[in-house]
Amino acid sequence: MLSSTSQAHHDESVEPEASPQFINRDPESTYDVFRKDHASTLFSLVGASQPRDPHEVVVTEQSVELLRIYQSGIGKWMDVLDHSLSYQRQVVRRSLSSSLLLHSVCALAAKQMSLASERFLWEPVSARYYGESLRLLIQDLNRPETSHEIVLAATILLCSYELLAAPGLDYERHLYGARTLIQARGIGAEVTDLEQASFWVYARQDVAMAVMNECPTLIPTHEWPAPLGHGFEEDTLGCQILWLLARVLELRFGSMDNLQDIRAQGLRNVSNEIDQWWDQLPSTARGVCTGDFSEDGLLKVWFYVPSAAAALLYYHMSKILILEDLSGTRSIAEVNTRDSPSRRCDESACLNELRSEARSIASICFSRSLQDSVLPVAVNPLFYAARHIPSLHLKARIWTLLDEIETRIGFHTKSRVVQLQGELEIDSNARH
């Protein structure tokens, strides 16, 4: 078990209140389902590995098409740090014998299609599958023989649907159901491969939302399991750096205002661990450089597996978050270092390092070989890269790439672009 002495901010937060009208209406989200009394049985969900689904599984031509779309599209996002491809293989296979899983997969695939393709065609389809998934989730939570791994995987899929449908709006509600199941079950060594895979999909979403909202993860890092894998497999390395990034978020954005020295020491410690992670990283996992440079001076790099690119993006963003804190420069518009008692590095040296890490992110993201499955991971690193790259031309290229990500794959980026442009305007006004 990985450990951390830090406490997540959310441990002390009050859970969102349930809607008083819920009893008189159908659930509208996974949050509604898990706040309802039906969820009281989830602590006993240990389940059989292959339970019999009491609902008849009806596979139609439409559901087969959505399964195919899922496997070739958003399923790859889910498995970007999983070489066993659990969500493309296991989840799809198990969905053929689980109505809950089948409807959840179809709901997510149709939602992604509605955002990236033909909205009027796919939006009603996604809503229909989503509504039926919530109904089936309630039923399965109340069956003693329910498989925990099936319910957890379905909840992860439905949380992903909700994050696509309404990004940034009360993200705790979107992740509430999955967090509840994970913490009730305890994702340690004695769980199935699918449960482990589900946790790491959840962890990536938890970290992404924490970065966007500048807060610790909902599940504190001392509750995270050790990343499982063999040797220096890139997916395992990616999970390791994801955990280290989550620790940086706890220290940087956690409630330790009166413990600045402890906080600063904690950041130095985790920074050393991140450097050790990098030092032990196989050279091939750092990307294969061609020796050529783009017109913006970016290094041309190729990654032979998507998980290596994703891991490197988490690494460079972790370094930026630490350097920002040590230099007292949290954004392009915040250059006053007097408010940072933890400042421990020369301002000029930190600025150069920040720009170097930012350019490394840009080099990865503008690589022609970068696969779509990495793009959702790239959104937050691109945001931080744009903050610290001085070239206006390269900033504009990053904004354009973020816009293209939303247009091409349906992953929300507009709010990040607006924030970046607002920060640049503030900085420009301050200079004049």
From TrEMBL:
One of its GO terms (molecular function) is DNA-binding transcription factor activity. GO terms for biological process: positive regulation of transcription by RNA polymerase II. This is Transcription factor domain-containing protein. It comes from Melanomma pulvis-pyrius CBS 109.77. Keywords: Nucleus. The keyword Membrane does not apply. It is found in: Nucleus. CDD domains: fungal_TF_MHR. GO terms for cellular component: nucleus. It comes from the Eukaryota. The keyword Nucleus applies. Signal peptide: none annotated. Residues 1-25 are annotated as: Disordered.
